[in-house]
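Dear all,

This email documents one entry for the complex benchmark we are building for the journal club exercise. For each entry we list the sequence lines for every component of the assembly. Then comes the predicted three-dimensional structure of the complex as a token string, followed by one or two observations. Please use this as the template for your own entries, and keep the labels exactly as they appear.
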Amino acid sequence: MDFRTCVNIQKEWDIVGARQFGRDFSKKLGFGIVDQARIATAISELARNIYLYAGSGKICFDEVENVGSRGICIVSLDTGPGIKDISQVMEDGFSTSGGLGAGLPGVKRLMDEFDITSKEGEGTEIRVVKWVR
Amino acid sequence: MAKKLKEILVDNSNNLVHMWLEEVAEKQKDVTNSSISQDLFENTNREFVNIIFGSVEKESLTSDLDSFTERVINLGWPLSYLTDGLQLFKRVATEFLIEHDELEVSVPEVLRNVDELVNPIINQLVNEYSGSWENTVSLQRVALQELSAPLIPVMENITVMPLIGTIDTERAKFIMENLLDGVIKHHAEVVLIDITGVPVVDTMVAHHIIQAAEAVRLVGSTCILVGIRPEIAQTIVNLGIDLSKFPTKSSLRKGFTAALEMTNQMIVQTNSEEQTIEELIDSLDRSEQS
């Protein structure tokens, strides 16, 4: 898939950059304030996961279209250690870093579509979509 | 040989200056905007080329160069103005030397000599410039840190911490320290944390707020989270974050009212004139009756 824009995540402040870009992008696509906040929060979670667990990676944005509706597609890519047990990280309250453990399950609830693929030692790819209502 | 080349350059400085000025004007024709007057631009160019020659002639970096760079930085001109200028100078000088007839020097030799003359100036300029930026960035960092976690004791036992902007790990740590220090110092019973100005509350931010509130509870005070905007409330619910351990309010005003109740305080409006008169009449009535 060819992405329009990608934001590299290496430093903690890159999370802010990705979030800001996502917010502007979703505003342009016609999302309301609440959905903009949801998208920004989801990006924040995904980018923070990259920063915390993989060290570096990128967040890519694109516009998607489906019969009559538009949406934003965000893909988080990294080549970090990968996730051993995906069903475990999708449980509420599971965290390896002493956090709240609400990140990934939270992102799933914030967005409309959620896809995760991960291979241990190779990296993780998370693809989320939110449709304009 | 290098000396001879240098002498040629210095001897023909007038020619070179002329060529350089033309090149620079050509190159920066479309770059210069209306905010810089033509006069200022031409003067700066002239001064710049004189300084380059000064440095080339002495084969050392002059203090003029430093003061000139400082001025360009203060004017807010881009670094590319200086580097482009020097690159052009290199080109002009090289071309001139190669075309110079009496010289029996190979082209690489000329290139190397010009490089040796000009590169120290470029290095010096870039260092100066980036140093100035680093300085600015570090000053702003300090300024930002001073702003990052202010604690305002508004009333006896009530303290407010308004948070504005993004919260990162460093700032979260700072907030926690400031909060606990302040609670002890101001003997606050209730602390209001206002997040109206926080653009995104994700699990990390929520986690830090929960930890801060918990720490405040441990030192015997209560924390009220205020300024939760509707969209933030929805994302918090979506994320599944449990904020039920401490009271939350939508606005600072409501939080403040709650804080007053918790500390058994009240804000009373001072008696208006009307009331005073009524009371006076009342007391007169009473005295008459008795």
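Observations: The mean pLDDT of chain A is 88. Strands of chain A lie at 5-9, 57-66, 69-78, 113-119, 123-131.
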